[in-house]
Please model this.
Amino acid sequence: MRTQKALWLLVIVIFMNGFLMNELKAQQTVVDSSVLDRITELEKQTSYNKPGMDHFMVVGLATVGFASIKNTTTIGGVSSVSKTNSFPDADHFEFSPMLLWRHGQKFLLEFEPSFSGNSLGVNWADVSYFAAPNLIIRAGYLVLPFGTYSKRLAAGWIDKLPTDPMGIADMAPTDYGVEVEGGLPLGSMKMSYDLALSNGSQLMPDGTLGAGNITDNNNNKTLTGRVALLPFSNSSLEIGVSGMFGKVGDVSTSPTAKGNAYAFDLNYVKLFNPILLNIKSQYNIQDINSNVAQVDSLPYTSNTHATSFFAQGSIRPTGASGFIKNLELAGRYTTYNNPAGSNGLIQNAVTVGLNYWINWRTVFKVGYESYTGNINAASTSNKINSLFLQFSIQL
Amino acid sequence: MKMLKMKNISLLIVVLFFVTLLPLLMDSCKPSQKVAAKSGVQLWAENCQRCHNTPSPNTFSPEQWETIGMHMQTRALLTQSEREKIVAFLKQ
Model:
């Protein structure tokens, strides 16, 4: 009797088990079907949003501000003073959207129009070809590789102070040409090279060099190059040497005028916890030798030796807490000596500033600059004291 | 005129020489083991601040970081390996 009960119980258990398994299987099939439908839908959406090989984006920068300037001019011992208070004007405003267009992994087109100095211009317009792992070939309208300031540090949201150092960017023109560049590992060190062949600058009637959006005036090309070494494995120090060599005279007459320039730059950025120390410096030398060059069909004789220099330091307590870590103190000394065009102008300026970083690419700056310019031949001096409030953002 | 042509040819030869030589030179340049082992986050911290503050990875989309990585390689002259590692970190 007991055996019979056990047998019935076993039969019931087996039956129930089979029934439950079937139910579960049916439910499983329903669930799988629903998930599959969802996956198919997601695949469709993903396919629709697939980025493709190309990518286009707009970045850029904007800089606005306020400048209060006191200008004291002394001629033969007699001084006159003028004062201005201006919202962003031709000298202190910039809006520069930058268009980046990537074609796959090999080509990049860069175009940066800029509204500054009361005019709409172009900072650069070029196409880069990533030919090999550490070799980039570029052609178009280029910022020539002369020092580092113009190419890397001039943007308002990067520059630690509201003004540019004097004479530095003036000697690093933008020009039409081709360029090869890249960074190379050297064991624990690193080096970079940048070589450009361009139409070249042109000798102006006042003895200075003109460059940029101008038609080529001779068949000679200007060679500009920079080689830099980063001796430490943490890339904290970079030392660079640049040279620019070319003829600058007019081909239609006697193109004997030569313009040779050299630049030495230094960049040191290191965290000494909690302080981030940032030191930058560049020294430019420009020699224009024009024994009997022809400028605008007039004979012109000139040998000009111009120099410009800046040394800048800033500290920021990035390791601190609270709003203190967003503050940065900066100072700079700059000189510019260019006898051409201004009858012997020797200029220097000291600039100090306090920055507040709203985020990594947005900064509010307060700066004070004291400028002195002397024109020796005319016994004329010029002193300018300026207060700047500036807001700069990378878009 | 002949002199001018000779100069142009010489210039062309020099340019071609360097263009040919550069890839060979680059192939012989290798990083040390210590440098080769650096992570993307380490390279991001070391290299970006050479010019500007270190960017937040959240600022741009992965596609945008690819494009910006190429742009920054042309500006800061990063090595290819550095760019790839930094972009990979920023895309996360």
About this structure: Chain B has one domain: 2-27+38-91. Chain B has a mean pLDDT of 86. Residues 2-27+38-91 of chain B form one domain.
